[in-house]
Design goal:
Blueprint: E1 4-9, E2 12-17, H1 28-42, E3 48-53, H2 75-79, H3 91-100, E4 106-110, E5 113-115, H4 117-123, E6 127-130, E7 135-137, H5 151-154, H6 161-170, E8 174-175, H7 176-182, E9 187-188, H8 192-204, H9 208-223, H10 226-240, H11 244-255
Parallel strand pairs: 2-3, 3-4, 4-6, 5-7, 6-9
Antiparallel strand pairs: 1-2, 7-8
């Protein structure tokens, strides 16, 4: 059975988890499907991505029954080899990191529950929009383990250290309001998929080269020193000014019409 579908409309890639009967819990087929979807979208001409889940939940986390395949194996033999992301991740980490590395903006539309592997997948997005009442949890401590799917790269960029520790140490569930207050999600919307789609449409209407450049620049700004960031601002700007996409933006603004990018 297909675990993940990818469809395209108006330059937007819609990635949907389709294991609704299991609240989109992540098993090996889901891992493979999410990674394959990321690879497909990265190679496409999409200008934005919306990730969502079928049924009652975005993602309930790892399907614990699927972990039985690790029994009797040395965890280091399973977790330590860098098999994905050009040697930077293992397959579990790639579930989130393939979206974090995406050159175009990624928006997660979240509802129901977003636990464990689900929250780490959502962290791979640039923006997270959740329905009222959605519940979130960094669930790994419930099973006596730590977040290991990219969460410790992505979560510290969003929340304070004390919030990170509370979420990780307790595995307690928090609602969408608390998640928004802590910076775990971007905003709350009655229909997160509709809100995410509308936002993706806005992004997709902007200069594709400028959007990709902005995402690169933001990544530099979040990790590098001031001098490196200042240099990157100028260098990346030089790549945009006077080029076809920027000239089309100017022409469209002057002509009071939508821009059309080739």
């Amino acid at each position: 059975m297909t675990r993940v579908t990818v469809t395209y409309e108006n330059h937007i890639a819609f990635v949907r988890l389709t294991r609704a009967d299991k609240m989109n819990a992540v098993d090996q087929k889901m891992i493979d499907g999410i990674i394959a979807a990321g690879q497909e979208v990265a190679a496409s001409d999409a200008r934005a991505v919306v990730i969502s889940g079928d049924g009652k939940a975005f993602c309930a986390g790892i399907d614990i029954t699927g972990l039985s395949g690790m029994m009797g194996k040395d965890p280091a033999d399973v977790l330590m080899p860098r098999t994905h992301g050009a040697g930077t991740t293992n397959q579990w980490q790639e579930v989130a990191m393939i979206w974090s590395r995406m050159e175009i903006p990624v928006i997660a539309a979240i509802h129901g529950v977003c636990f464990g592997a689900g929250i780490q997948l959502a962290l791979g997005a640039d923006i997270r929009i959740a329905a009222p009442g959605t519940r979130f949890a960094v669930m790994e401590m419930k099973w006596g383990i730590v977040p290991d799917m990219g969460g410790m790269v992505l979560l510290p960029k969003l929340v304070r250290s004390d919030v990170l520790r509370r979420l990780t140490y307790t595995a307690e569930q928090v609602d969408a309001t608390q998640a928004a207050n802590w910076g775990l999600i971007t905003e709350i919307a009655e229909d997160p998929l509709a809100a995410a789609t509308a936002l993706a449409q806005t992004i997709a209407a902007k200069s594709p080269s400028a959007i990709r450049a902005a995402k690169r620049l933001i990544a530099i700004a979040q990790t590098q020193d001031a001098q490196t960031v200042l240099d990157a601002e100028s260098r990346i700007q030089c790549e945009l000014i006077g080029k076809p996409h920027q000239m089309e933006v100017i022409a469209a603004e002057m002509g009071k019409r939508p821009a059309v990018f080739k």
